[in-house]
Amino acid sequence: MLRILVFLAHVTHILCYDWSSLNLVESHVPYVFANNPGLTSECKADEACPYRDILSNRTLCWGFEKNCDAKNRFGGKSPTVDCDDTSKDRYWHQADFGYLRDQLNELDETKVCDSPNESSLHCTKFGSMCRARKLYLDLRDVNDGQSVVGEGGIGGFCKLDANMRSKVTEVKRSLSTWGEQLQHYTQLDFNPWSNTSKYCDVIVDKPMLFVQLDFGGNMYHHFCDFFNIYLTQMANSSWFGTDVQIVRWDLSYRYGEVFRESWDAFTNRDHVSLREYMGKRICITDAMFSFLPRTILGLFYNTPVEVNCRGSSLFKAFSEHFLHRMGITSHAPTSLPNQPNKIRVTLLERGSNPRYKIYRQILNVGELGNAIRKIPGLEVNVVEYHHEKMSFKDQLLTTHNSDIMIGMHGAGLTHFLFLPPWAVAFELYNCGDIRCYRDLPRLRGVRYITWENESKLEAFDQNEHPQYGDQPKFWNYKFDVPEFVRLVLKARSWVLEHDRFAHLRHDEL
C-alpha cells in the first residue's frame, strides 16, 4: 500500500500518497489543497489523483492565511449573522479564523530560539501554543514527583533569546499556558542530529503533538481538548493526517475518559504520557505544543462572544470535520429529496446513577414529551445519553439528525456543536449559568432558546445536597406544560424558516 509521511511543521515532505486515505469532508478539499503546496504538487504529478480538477482554484483560503481575501474564505465573506458590521469584525477576531490569524502573527514574531536549518522554538505571546523543530528532550532524571523538565532537559541547537523566553513563559498556569513546561528551554552546546547514535535514545520522525488535557469524563471539558487540537492542526497548514503521536504532558499511567473513540478523528495511535519516554533522550523532528483547553481568552472555553452574533466558519469546519471522521451522516429524507415530512425533536433525559444522585432532573419529562407529540409534524424522541446505554457514535448520529434538541443545563449539551445548520438548540433551563450552552450553539451557527419565565417552573430538592444545596444546578425541576409547548412551537417556527422545510410551512397558517 502507498503511504504518506506527514510532518506537522511548515515544510512538508511527501514521499507518495494513497489518495483514498485523504479522509476529508468533500467541501473542505479545495481549501486543504490551496493551503498545501506540497500536496498540490504531488497531486499534479500523479495521474491517479482524483482531485486534479480543483488545483487551478488557488484563490480559496480558510480565512487565517495572509492575503486571504474575505470573499474567498471558507464560509464566505460574512458567515456571521444577527449583528452589525462592527460587531461582526470583532467577533471574527474573537471566535473565527481571525483569532487564528492573530495567533499566527504572534507566532511569527515571537522567536524564543531560532537557527536556520537547525532547531527552533516559536510561541504565541503568552505561550498558549508553540511550534518546535529538532526538539531535544532529556527525561533521564525525571521521576514521578516531577511535572517540569529542568535545565538541560529540553532545548535545541539554536540561538536562544533569553529575554523572549522569559516573556513567553512568564504566565505559568496549568491548562492555559506552556510557561511552566518551557521555562527551562535551553540553547544546547551540541547538535543531537550530528550524531544521533550518541545523543538520542529515541528518534521521532513523525509529528509529535504535546497536549495538556482537561477532564475526560465530561463532554464539555474534553471537547475543549479536541477543538483545540483541531485548531493546532489548522495552524500548521495540516491536511489532518492521522499518523501523529499525541503525548500528554504528564507522568500518569492512564487518562480516564468516556469519549475515547473521538481520538480517531485526529490520530491512528493511542495517546501516551511522558512516562512512555522516562529515562530516555528523545530527538523529535517536528513538535507542536497544542493550544490549550483553558487558554486565557482562548476558543471554546470562556470565549468572549460579541453580543447577538451567531456563526463561526471555524466552528463550522470543526463540526463538519469531526462528524466526517466519526462516520456520522444525515439520515435519508423520509419523503421527497431534501423534503422530510417531520421535524425531528430530541429530548434529553438525564437518567439516574446507582452510585450517586443525579440532579437537574426533568421530573415531568414524560408529560412534556407526550404534550409535544400532539403537535402536528413533530417526531419526538426521548433519549438518555449515557455511555453505558448508548455508544458515543450513536449519540452523535441522533444529535446530527435532530432538528430541535432539548435538554437541561449540563455537559451533554455540548452536542449542540453537532446539530445541522438549520436546527434549534433548546436549553430547557440554564440554572443561572447563562453563557455556557448559549454560546456553543451560537459559535456553531444554530439558533438558541431557553426557558423564559421562571414563575412557570417549580424547583425540588433544594438544599438537599450537603455541599451545593443552595445552587440551582443541584436541584430538580418540573416545567409548566403549556409554556413548554409554546417554546417548542417557537423553535419549530425557526426551523421552518429553512428552505429544507418550505413544503411544511402551510401547517403554520
Give an overview in words:
The chain is of the alpha/beta class and 509 residues long. It is built from 13 helices and 18 strands. Strands 1, 2, 3, 4, 5, 6, 7, 8, 9, 10 and 11 form an eleven-stranded mixed β-sheet that branches. The longest helix has 17 residues, at 219-235. The radius of gyration is 25 Å and the shape is globular. The relative contact order is 0.10.
The largest sheet is:
11 strands, mixed
Average predicted local confidence, pLDDT: 90
Report how far the terminal alpha carbons are from each other. 59 Å
Percent range for helical residues?
Answer: 10-25%
Strand residues, percent: 15-25%
Q: Helical element count?
A: 13
User: How many whole angstroms does the radius of gyration measure?
Assistant: 25 Å
Categorize the overall geometry: globular
Ranges where pLDDT stays below 50 over 5 or more residues in a row are: 1-15
Query: What is the number of beta strands?
Result: 18
User: What structural class do you assign from the helix and strand content?
Assistant: alpha/beta
Summarize the structure.
The chain has 509 residues and is of the alpha/beta class. It has helices at 29-34, 37-45, 85-95, 97-109, 162-168, 179-182, 196-199, 219-235, 313-325, 365-373, 392-400, 436-444, 481-496, and strands at 111-114, 120-123, 130-138, 154-156, 159-160, 186-187, 202-204, 208-211, 245-248, 272-273, 281-289, 343-348, 378-383, 404-407, 424-427, 447-450, 457-460, 476-479. Helix 3 (85-95) packs across helix 4 and helix 10 packs across helix 13 (481-496).
